[in-house]
Amino acid sequence: MVRHSKLDVNSQYIGRPLPIGVTQWLGIRYAAPPVGDLRFAPPQDPANDPEPKQANEVSNIEPGRARTSEDCLFLDVYAPTWATSESKLPVFVFIQGGGFNGNTNPNLNGTGLIAASNNSIVFVTFNYRVGPYGFLTDGRQITANNGLRDQRKALHWVHIHIAKFGGDPAHVVIGGASAGAASVALHLMAYGGRDDALFNAAAAGSVSFGTMLTARESVYQYNNLLVRLDCVGHDPLACLRSKSASELQKKSAKSPYPGAMHAPLFMWGPVIDGEIITKLPYEAFRGGKFLKVPVIFGDDTNGGTVFAPDKTSTRSESNRWLMDQFPHLTINQLTRLSELYPNSNQTMCPEKGCWWRQLSNIYGEMRYMCPGLFLNAAFARHGVEASYAYRWNVEDSEEMAAGLGVPHTVEVGAIFGPDNIQEMAPESYHSNGTNADAVQRIQGHWARFIKTLNPNHPQSDISTHWETWGERPWSRLLFDTGGATRMEKIDSGLRERCEYLASIGIALHQ
User: Fold this and answer.
1) Which is nearest to 171 in space by CA: 144, 145, 129, 200?
2) How many other CB atoms sit within 10 Å of the CB of residue 144?
3) Residue range 5-19: average pLDDT?
4) What are residue 393's DSSP bridge partners?
5) Which residues contact 34 (CB under 8 A, 6 or more apart)?
6) Is the dihedral of CA 302, 307, 311, 313 positive or negative?
7) DSSP 109
């Protein structure tokens, strides 16, 4: 049976039922094409289209990758085939990562997570504008944070239409990884913590607190783009809109932050615009300016290894690279970081890479792990009982041999299942692999949290029970190699490092 979903008066999408009891709708337009006069504009409602459309093909993503186009504002829905408009199933909306400069997790397949829920949830994922398309602003004509506005538009779409697919608009959990997890945090603090009834829980991995500028501070990016595209002396916005996507893509190269020597890993990103984002994340969450909902935050053991340059060979190179990412770092702060993160490989020097792991440890904790733990503590401190922390420590032999340890966001391949992501998941995550049980374990926790806002099975024993931050402060659930789990106390060294990083976070514009 082919299922139709009528989204508005004149639009209809035809889903594809799969043999596993799930129906998928791929490539549903949630906003008008952001092209022509809508390039660099907030997302607008799509036009009605009376012709029924087969929703069975993955959609375009942002320019720069395969199957790309600026016309990229589409979403995918996966729902149990048995569900009806009266089912009111819990909904999980996943925001993909990519540093706000790309789309790292496009077209995720939700069937694995739905299966883990016993076919009792609805899953939504979507594309949004990144790079200059989503985060360019001149502080005047070009509205800031259009990429976040796209995300918000998708969440509004879910609120209005998800019941047609069997979902409950009053039970929506948002999630994400890396920049997607940063987006989750930003939606929690959006508009000063205003509740627009778009979601009522969040589960995010590797929350990212990067350098955040104000809209005015980011105008150098706009000015550089005008010069590169020869738009000086013309109507700037009209000139920018007249350029082809290829021209814009080629000329939108990263520039150093003011005061830095080299371009950062991720230049384009959200800014403080006084509207969606009113404060720096460390400031907003410390002050309680966020939605008080159940949350899961966590990270991988070695979140910095895929980012830090593996040829880093001196302390000077390590410090310079850190200052390119966080240009407000002071000499005193760098000195303190050297004390907190001694180089255990220094006896190797001056071999290439002898400072790589020291640098990756700093960056992984400064940008990802410590912000996540800070959020767990903030939610508990401001009265949210259901604040759950985790560490993914599931070792894959190939990643370990490459020196990556347990790298950034690798658990996405476990949460969705190793066959359901475009990026290759570790071989050990597959059904015959040594970590197949770990995949099953995290999928179970995620599915239960989506369904009940509690990741624990009602009959779980003490060895598998996931305690909240309030029950056991500075503790988290450890997902270990092979599938074992246990609560671990966060050691005093990590706690000291995270408390120091939180103390300088606002000064670093995080």
Assistant:
1) 200
2) 25
3) 75
4) 480
5) 41, 43, 70, 71, 72, 73, 129, 133, 146, 150
6) negative
7) -
Q: Residue 365 and residue 326: Cα distance in Å, rounded?
A: 13
Distance CA 328, CA 506 (A): 10
Domain 4-504 belongs to what architecture? 3-Layer(aba) Sandwich (3.40)
Record the tokens describing residue 324, joined without a space. 């390119």
Taking 90 as the threshold, does the pLDDT of residue 107 lie above it?
A: no
Contacts of 292 (CB under 8 A, 6+ apart): 379, 382, 383, 384
Q: pTM (2 decimals)?
A: 0.95
The token pair at 161 is: 């239409």
Q: What is d(CA 422, CA 8) in angstroms, rounded to the nearest whole number? A: 31
Task: Answer whether 29's CB lies under 8 Å from 12's CB.
Answer: no
Residue 2's pLDDT band (boundaries 50, 70, 90)? very low
The two structure tokens encoding residue 510:
């995080």
> Going by DSSP bridges, is the β-strand pair 122-126/167-177 parallel, antiparallel, or unpaired?
unpaired
Residue in 12, 23, 50, 33 with CA at minimum distance from that of residue 161 = 12
Q: Sign of the CA dihedral 41, 44, 48, 51?
A: positive
Distance in angstroms (rounded) separating the CA atoms of residues 200 and 295 = 9
In terms of Cβ atoms closer than 10 Å to its own Cβ (0-12, 13-18, 19+), residue 140 is exposed
Given a contact cutoff of 8 angstroms between Cβ atoms, the answer to whether 154 and 126 are in contact is: yes
Q: Residues 45-89: pLDDT tens digits?
A: 998 877 787 777 776 666 644 446 899 999 999 999 999 999 999
- The half-sphere exposure of 160 on its side-chain side, counting CA atoms within 13 A, is 11
CB-based contacts of 454, cutoff 8 Å, min separation 6: 294, 386, 448
> What does the alpha-carbon distance between residue 491 and residue 510 come to, in Å, rounded to a whole number?
24
Angle at 380 between CA 379 and CA 385, to 5 degrees: 105
CA-nearest of 478, 473, 510 to 186 is 510
Please say if the pLDDT value at position 109 is more than 90: yes
Alpha-carbon 112 to chain mean position: 20
Q: Is the dihedral of CA 366, 369, 370, 372 positive or negative?
A: positive
End-to-end CA distance of the chain: 50
Backbone angles phi, psi at 139, to 5 degrees: 80, 0
Contact predicate 80/115, CB 8 Å: no
- pLDDT tens-digit profile of 263-276? 999 999 999 999 99
Q: Answer whether 396's CB lies under 8 Å from 427's CB.
A: yes
Distances, alpha carbon 216 to alpha carbons 191, 224, 251, 276, 396, in Å = 19, 14, 21, 15, 44
